[in-house]
Each structure stands twice: as structure tokens, then as C-alpha cells.
Amino acid sequence: MSEAPRENLPGRQQNWQMFGKLIVVTLAMFGFGFALVPLYEKICEVTGINQLTKRDRQAEEFARNTQVDTSRKVVVEFDANGRGAWQFRPETGSLEVHPGQLVTVVYDLVNTKDVPTTGQAIPSYAPMVSSQYFHKLECFCFEQQELGAGETRKFPVVFVLDPKLPKDVNTITLSYTFFEVGGKGATASVASGGRGG
């Protein structure tokens, strides 16, 4: 009786090597994904991304302890862009501000939908370097805002410019974009069958 053919050992060995490589690649990908969270947070901290809507805990103390630089004026321009259900605008287009001076501006926001709607304002600054010297004590951008159907609301922004603002910055543009986000309004829209969009 003839002996059964022996299995192809080199082919089987290659399969096991490939399996081992796939396990190593899978573990490396998992490790990389796990490491992305602290890496992302560090990048955001260094670049200032994702810090724009966080409350500046030291702003109030900074405003109390800073001196107003009356020898200098900076023009601060205000801009607003509504996305989705919003009509959004500042009540004033620009102001001349002394660094160190406490300033309040007001933005008007209207929910044009016939259901409650939730939104989030994201600020941006030009020139970008000015964001480091723009300290907000109060801002509607610190949290999501829910407005009732057709509701109009006024939101103050209270800020102070750091007197250490570079001397070559004479104009700053503070721009907000107000986005519709999921929230109670989204739930109400679904409950009503999506009517009134």
C-alpha cells in the first residue's frame, strides 16, 4: 500500500507566516487608533483647534487685573454666518477698542423653523494670532443653544483684548458661524414626522 502524499510543508509555513503578519498589523492598527486620542488632544492644545468654544476660566481674573492701554486703539470687526435654520447677525459691525478695556457686543439669533432647534456657534479670528489675545468672559459659543419655534434671542459677548497684542495688529475680525446640531429640536422634528423643515 502506498504512503499518503505528504502535505506541502513550505506552503503551510507560508500561510502561518502570513497569519502572523496579519496579527501584527491588526495589533499595530489597534494601538495606533488607541494612541490617536491623546495625540489629537495634544495637537488641538498646541494649535488651538477645538479650544475656541471652551470657556476661558482665567478671563474674568485677567480682566480685573489688567490695565487699559488708552494710548492704543484696535478696530474689532464682527461677522456672523448662519447655517440651516438660523438668521444671525451682530447688532454692530465694528468697534474701536482699547486693549485691556472690557467690551460687550450683542448678537441677534432667530430660529426660522416652526420646531425647537439646537445650534452651536464656532468662532474664528483674523488674523489668527489674535485668538491668543482675545479673552471672552461671556459667550453664547461656550455651549449649545436651543431656541423655540420662531424664537428670537439676544446673546452678549463680553471680551477683553490683552494689551500684549502685537503692535502690528490694528484690526481683528471676530466671525461666528452658527450651525444646527442634533438635540432636542432634532428629536421634536422626528416626533412630528419631519414636518416644518
Automatic annotation (TrEMBL):
Record's bilayer topology term: Single-pass type II membrane protein
Stored SUPFAM superfamilies: Ctag/Cox11
Record key words, sorted: Copper, Membrane, Signal-anchor, Transmembrane, Transmembrane helix
Major localization listed first in the record, in broad terms: membrane
TM spans (from-to): 21-40
One GO cellular component, as annotated: plasma membrane
Keyword Transmembrane helix: yes
Localization, UniProt: Cell inner membrane
Pfam short name (any one): CtaG_Cox11
GO terms, molecular function: copper ion binding
Record bears the keyword Membrane: yes
Family, as annotated: Belongs to the COX11/CtaG family.
Role noted for this protein: Exerts its effect at some terminal stage of cytochrome c oxidase synthesis, probably by being involved in the insertion of the copper B into subunit I.
UniProt-recorded name of the protein: Cytochrome c oxidase assembly protein CtaG
Biological classification of the source: Bacteria, Pseudomonadati, Pseudomonadota, Betaproteobacteria, Burkholderiales
